[in-house]
From TrEMBL:
Protein's UniProt keywords contain Transmembrane helix: yes
UniProt keyword annotation of Cell membrane present: yes
Location relative to the cell: Cell membrane
Gene Ontology cellular component annotations, sorted alphabetically: plasma membrane
CDD domains associated with the record: MATE_Wzx_like
TM ranges: 21-44, 56-77, 98-124, 130-148, 160-180, 186-208, 228-243, 249-266, 310-335, 341-361, 373-392, 398-420
Protein's name in the database: Uncharacterized protein
InterPro entries: Poly_Biosynth_Transport, Polysacc_synth
Membrane topology annotation: Multi-pass membrane protein
Organism this protein belongs to: Pontibacter actiniarum
Amino acid sequence: MSFLRNILNKISTFATSEYRPLLENFFSLGLIQGANFLLSIITFPYIVRVIGVERFGIITLLQTIMLYFVVLTDYGFNLSATKDISVNRKNITRVSNIFSEVIATKFVLLLLSFLILSSSFLLFPSFKEYWLLTLFSFTIVLGQLLQPTWFYQGIEQMKYITYINILNRALYASGIFVFISEPQDYLYINLINGVSLVVGGVISLIIVFRKFGLQFSFPSLTRIRRQLVDAWSIFFATIIISVSNNTNIVILGIFASPLIIGYYSIAEKVFQIMRTFAAILYQVVYPRVCILAQESFEALANFLHKLLKAIMLVFIPLSLIVFAFADHIVLFIAGKYISEAALVLRIICFGPFMAALNIPASQTMLAYKLNNLYTVVLSIGAVINVALNFTLTYHFKAVGTASSIMITETISTGLLYYALHRKHPHYTFFLNKAPMKGAKL
């Protein structure tokens, strides 16, 4: 009881301290993920039953293709622009300029994406069969572009994104039940998704200009080029992360049967849900990290020490609970006990803890513009991940895939702290008990 009381007291102190905005933003993003999860449960079975498995595969494939263009148009601005907005938030003119430059750059990348997509019809003639569905699906890219999440992160006002995201998902779910009633309606599913995102994006932009007083001005080509250059390393790192995270199940598909893949997918779903908390934490604390980095490294180090304690307090118990109840979790999801899936879940359940543990080191690198070092470490991690996947998956199938994930997560986290300590010892906070007083920006 005393242990529980101590935890509750710490949470209460945190909630009433200067970090209250972080807690509010964390719960805002958590609400977004919860809404997405619930609406997915409602719409997913309905869509599959109405349009059939084959057509569902087609729209899912096009959704995946559009995600590549989303990565291109985002271009790492979720980190680079968030930082710029965060450190300049009190200068409305500068924030307006940053906002204008990022939006204009994203539209240039949108045009590039459309040209690439259009050329695919010439390079792959068989793709022409789905040209209308492809064009409808491209609205997803436009809708994601119009979501200024990076701006709201930078000013630490994520509640607006919560409202808009819930509106997006509600519009999507309503559109599905109203307009999708027979197999031929599969053409409109991605269009409904895209239009709901566009509506939410337009509302978000109206809030940006009316609530926060920003003014849009067309930037010069030089400023657009500067945005592309400044965010390049983060964009490259984002691609590496995307490829690394999506290769696991692809490589497993080379060596294992669909049944084994199914076992692994059950565990991975739980893994991704757990990892969502680490992703939310990453988004929430990054603006504060950027601000503290501008003040002094000592202020940043003190904050990150507290963050590490919070990570230990939350993620270790969470991982232990999943480890202990893996059998019951698999039984709940699959409706029957599957020992292979439970074993895989026990192997990877500590992965989200390792992902959260690397937040202080990775964000310190980004805050002090050590982007090249950050990219190098991520590249090494991606290479290790692919190499381990091919080796371990070949011999141990799903267990090998799960083992490669945990090994990669552990090595990558260790490399981040080691690289920071080795290359920039004046920014080391994890290996020292106290931050160095003489550190300068």
